[in-house]
From TrEMBL:
Pfam families: PhoD, PhoD_N. Residues 43-139 form the Phospholipase D N-terminal domain. It comes from the Bacteria. Residues 153-496 form the PhoD-like phosphatase metallophosphatase domain. InterPro entries: Metallo-depent_PP-like, PhoD-like_MPP, PhoD-like_sf, PhoD_N, Phospholipid_Metab_Enz, TAT_signal. CDD domains: MPP_PhoD. This is Alkaline phosphatase.
Length: 527
């Protein structure tokens, strides 16, 4: 059976031949109308960044042929959009036009305003006679509203070859209010030559240009289960490393900076083009950075601090600039590991986060302060004595600064959500040495497994790690899936959802474990 991308290319080739024949027989206006009979919304629709009065709607238009430079695809296209109370669009509440620019791959980011807070809506796009799939989205509650329930899916890491996206089908069936995607939306690698044990392969090369990154997103977004998950609820997204290059750190990637920095710029632009983000995310028109750390309010129930742990971090300890992947080191052989000047988030983001958490602590009106970030936060000591350099463990001074801030001005409840490691971890976040008072728990942590990416370790090794880390309550590897959180004013419940067979596109799912955090009592408890 051909892959979705192969089928998409085949459809495009057939369409290209038809359009070429029509172009020799029809007037220009008639040819353009016929050309739009293909599905320009082949990458689906999405929404995100919910506010009490609005939301961002996204799509990207696909031409009949990706290389088509003929009219109308050489220039801007006008897309119509509608927002309605109902899926049949009998009660349209907002509508308008948006311009899809070729310089942004004909992507569309509509910032809808004037909606009612705490409401579900339906939306769609139209181009000529083509109509997109219908998406479902919702607005955040009013600032002073205390919602009685918020259901959140958190997920990360969806390498195409390692598994089908059945997890997204089940996540959509769970009917979340919000999806938090925590990084590694795409993987930049070419498919391995040995396809044994893989769910599927692709023919894309390691990205070298903006066009390559755009094609990589088109590959991932061709998956129907991922499209359905985008269409079922608003998303809040951040990135990790594979959206650009494995283990990159701020300005540091592999190879010469003259080649690396333009590659990073291209990758960042492609990320913006394919995500439901606001225009204010852009730091500049030249894509020299994206403003991804931000706060979102869910009334008084929850406040989300969304972090960016890639763009501003210092180079991993004892890694040479321009060198290969980050690894693990022995602390005694790597003095830079404990350098107090090194930052995981960058100093400006550190101060922004500490100020936001201090405000949560002062106001006390926010029931749950949520840190949506990339990776495992709690310490993970290895029996070998080695220490990871790419995670928070590689920046222990930065983690200690954040823990001290939590200890000194503790929000009502703090929960950290993470991904990256392709394993499920549930942890107490302990106060650091020197924080004062008796040893205590500062926060709760749920670090999720991958949607499809392999773990790269064994359960025996993970069990050995857990035995020497008493704050780790659960550690499981090689179970793909996502986390499902039900949040109320008095209780946070997380279910770790796992897929039985990642090589089966129709796989069922099950609950691996369930933990709860009570209001005012930090630390997860089995539920």
């Amino acid at each position: 059976m051909p892959t979705p991308l192969a089928a998409m290319h085949r459809r495009r080739l057939l369409q290209q031949a038809a359009w070429a024949a029509m172009a020799t027989q029809l007037p220009r206006w008639a040819w353009a109308r016929q050309a739009l009979r293909h599905d320009p919304f082949g990458l689906g629709v999405a929404s995100g960044e919910p506010l009490p009065g609005g939301v961002v709607l996204w799509t990207r238009l696909l031409p009949p042929d990706p290389a088509d430079a003929a009219a109308p695809w050489a220039g801007p296209l006008t897309v119509r959009w509608e927002v309605a109370d109902d899926a049949q669009f009998r009660r349209i509440v907002q509508h308008g036009n948006a311009t899809a620019l070729p310089g942004l791959a004909h992507s569309v980011h509509v910032e809808v305003a004037g909606l009612q807070p705490g409401r579900w809506y339906h939306y769609r796009f139209m181009l000529g006679d083509a109509v997109s799939a219908v998406g479902r989205t919702r607005t955040a509650p009013a600032p002073q509203a205390l919602e009685q329930r918020l259901r959140v899916v958190y997920a990360s890491c969806q390498r195409w070859e390692h598994g089908y996206y059945a997890a997204w089908r089940h996540a959509c069936a769970d009917q979340p209010d919000l999806v938090l995607f925590l990084g590694d939306y795409i993987y930049e690698y070419a498919s391995p030559k040995d396809a044994s044990g893989l769910a599927r392969t692709h023919g894309l090369r390691l990205p070298r240009s903006l066009a390559d990154y755009r094609e990589r997103y088109a590959l991932h977004k061709s998956d129907p289960d991922l499209q359905a998950a985008h269409a079922c609820a608003p998303w809040v997204v951040t990135w990790d490393d594979h959206e650009v290059q494995n283990d990159y750190a701020g300005d540091h990637g592999r190879g010469d900076a003259a080649e690396w920095l333009p590659l990073r710029t291209a990758a960042w632009q492609a990320f913006y083009e394919h995500m439901p983000l606001r225009a204010s995310t852009l730091n500049s028109s030249a894509f020299q950075g994206l403003q991804l750390y931000r706060r979102l309010h869910w009334g008084r129930l929850a406040r989300l601090h969304v972090l960016d742990a890639r763009q501003y971090r210092d180079l991993q300890a004892c890694r040479k600039p321009g060198g290969g992947s980050a690894g693990a080191v022995r602390p005694e052989a790597c003095p830079a590991l404990t350098d107090p000047q090194r930052s995981f988030l960058g100093w400006q983001q550190e101060q922004w986060l500490q100020a936001g958490l201090a405000q949560d602590a002062r106001e006390r009106a926010t029931h749950w302060s949520v840190l949506a970030q990339q990776t495992l936060f709690a310490p993970r000591h290895y029996p070998s004595g080695l220490q990871s350099t790419d995670s928070w463990d590689g920046y222990p001074a930065a983690r200690e600064r954040l823990c001290h801030a939590l200890a000194q001005q503790a929000p009502r409840n703090t929960v950290l959500l993470g991904g990256d490691i392709h394993q499920n971890y549930v942890c107490n976040v302990p106060a650091p040495p020197g924080a004062g008072g008796a040893p205590r728990i500062l926060a709760s942590e749920f670090c999720g497994t991958s949607i499809s990416s392999r773990a790269g370790t064994t359960q025996d090794k993970v069990d050995a790690i857990r035995r020497i880390n008493p704050h780790v309550l659960l550690a499981r590897c090689d179970e793909r899936g996502y986390g499902l959180c039900d949040i109320t004013p008095t209780l946070w419940t997380t279910r770790l959802r796992a897929i039985r067979d990642p090589l089966d596109a129709g796989s069922d799912a099950y609950t691996l474990a369930r933990f709860a955090v009570e209001d005012g009592r930090p630390g997860p408890q089995p539920a």
